[in-house]
Amino acid sequence: MSFTLRSYHLRMRSILIAALLAASVLNAQTPPAPEPPIGLTAEAMVWTDGPPTLPPGSKMAILEGNPKAEGMFAMRVRIPAGSAIPPHWHPRQERVTILSGAVDLGFGTVANAGKTKRYAAGSFYVNPPRVMHFLFFPEATEMQMTGIGPWELQTSDITPQPGAVPTATVAIRSITPLPGSELTPSTIVTAVVDYTIGNFKPSTYWLDFVFETTTPNKTFGVGPEVSSHSDHPLPPPRPNYVLSPGGTVTLTQELTRVLPNPQLKHPIRMRVYVHEQKSEMSNRVVGMSDWIEYR
C-alpha cells in the first residue's frame, strides 16, 4: 500500500511539473495583447470649451490621445461663424479635415482675407510645421485635426528677418564629475548651464551635450532611446525646448551609448550646444560652450 501511495505522489508531481512547464512555454509564445480598438459615436463625444488660443465660443472634443502630451492625437473643434485666428504656427504638422462649414486659409505674417483659399465641408489640408498661417470662418465650422503632440498654437513671428541672426551664449556653471576625471559607461555627467538666446522664439531652442570625434570639426550627440511595444512606430522625441530667452538649466548625460562609439576622440572632450529648430527634421547650432575634457 505504501508503494502504491508513493507511486501516486510521484506521478502527480510529474504531471504538475509538466503542466507548469507547458504553461510557461505557452506564456512565452503568447503575443502581447493587441491595442483595444477606438470607437466613438457622435453622441458619445465630450465637448468642452476650447483653449484661449481659439476664438471665443469654440468647443473641443478629444477623440484619441492627448494633444498636450507626446504621441498621436485626434480632436474635433467647433468654431463660431465670423471668427478668425490670427497668424500663428505649430511645431509639427497639423492635418485638418473640414466636416461642416468652411475655412478660409492663408499663409503669411499678416492676416489678409483677400489672400486665402476656401476649404469647404469634405476638404482636407496639411499645415507644414513652423509656417505662419491664418484662418477666417465665414460660417460655423466643425473640423477634425490629427497630429503628433504636444499640439501648440504659437503666435510669435517665426519668419526669418533680414540681418536678425539668432545667437546664443552658453556657460557651464558647474559639472560632475570634475573635468579630468576618468569616465566609465556607468558615469552620469550632470551640468548646470547658464544661457541667453537672442531673437528668442518659443518652442524653437534646446540645449544638449555633444562629443568631439576623430574627424576634425565634427561632433555627435546621443539622444534618448525610443522603443515601442506595439506595431505602431513612435514619433521622434520632441526636444526639451527652453521656455525663456535666458536662464539656467540642468543637463544630464548617460555614457552607455557614448563610450563604445568608435568615432569618439580621446581624451574625451564634450561641450553644450544650443540648437535652433529650423523645420521638423532640421536644426542649426546657434551657440556653444567651451570644451570640457575627461579621460
Brief descriptors of the model:
295 residues, mainly beta, Jelly Rolls, Immunoglobulin-like, 2 domains, 5-stranded antiparallel β-sheet, 1 helix
| Domains (count) | 2
| Strand fraction | 35-45%
Structural class per helix/strand content?
Answer: mainly beta
Could you say which overall geometry the principal axes of the C-alpha atoms support?
A: globular
Query: Looking at CATH, which topology of the largest domain would you report?
Result: Immunoglobulin-like
How many distinct beta strands? 18
| Portion in helices | under 10%
The number of helical elements comes to 1
State mean pLDDT (0 to 100 scale).
84
Largest sheet, order of strands side by side? 1-2-3-10-5-8
Poorly predicted runs are none
Describe the largest sheet: 6 strands, antiparallel
- End-to-end distance: 75 Å
Radius of gyration, in Å, reads 28 Å
Order of helices and strands: HEEEEEEEEEEEEEEEEEE
Quickly give the CATH architecture of the largest domain: Sandwich
CATH class of the largest domain: Mainly Beta
Description:
The chain is mostly beta strands. It has 2 domains: 42-149, Jelly Rolls, CATH 2.60.120.10; 168-294, Immunoglobulin-like (Sandwich), CATH 2.60.40. It is built from 1 helix and 18 strands. The chain has a 6-stranded antiparallel beta sheet with strand order 1-2-3-10-5-8, with no helix packed on it. A hairpin with a 6-residue loop joins strand 13 and strand 14. The longest helix has 28 residues, at 2-29. It is globular and about 65 Å long. The N and C termini lie far apart (75 Å). The mean pLDDT is 84.
